[in-house]
Amino acid sequence: MTLKGAVRTINKLLGKHRPQTFSSSWIFEHSQPVYNFIRLNFRTELGTVDWDAVTPLLTRRYQKRWKRYRVKRLEPYEDKEELDKVLVMKKDGT
Question: How many domains does the chain have?
Answer without folding.
Answer: 1
